[in-house]
């Protein structure tokens, strides 16, 4: 008697179990619907907060501040990755040190990416205008 996991399909591979396909579909749906939506809300919320509160009367200065802070922060976070890893490493992933360190790093990385891209896109709009040139610069290839 053969088990369904022992049967070989086309190309010598055994077909994936039905429950793993359902898990893959559920994971994909959760990622696209929940995680994707929350990511967009995070970006949009922080972006709009910066538009309203970071030099609202001087968008060019705000763009340069975002661009500089975002890039400097991303470089600093990249260079300090081993320190973060050392700080949050624990045998127990439920330890407060791991939970706080992991979340602080994740939110800092997300916020610094928003700063970087807000600065870059706003500067691009300011210096090239919003038109055909901007489209060609923004769309490589």
Structure overview:
By secondary structure, the protein is an all-alpha fold. The protein is built from five helices and no strands. Helix 1 packs across helix 4. The longest helix is centred in the N-terminal third of the chain and has 36 residues. The N and C termini lie far apart (56 Å). The mean pLDDT is 85.
Summarize this entry quickly.
The protein is mainly α and 141 residues long. It is built from five helices and no strands.
What share of residues is helical?
over 70%
User: Would you tell me the structural class of the helices and strands?
Assistant: mainly alpha
Backbone shape: extended
Strand content: under 5%
How would you describe the oligomerization state of the chains in this entry?
A: single chain
Mean pLDDT: 85
The largest β sheet comes out as: none
- Give helix and strand order, one letter per element, not per position: HHHHH
Q: Helical segment tally?
A: 5
Q: From the alpha carbons, calculate the radius of gyration and give it in angstroms.
A: 22 Å
Beta strands, count:
0
State the end-to-end CA separation.
56 Å
Q: List segments where confidence is low: pLDDT < 50 over at least 5 consecutive residues.
A: none
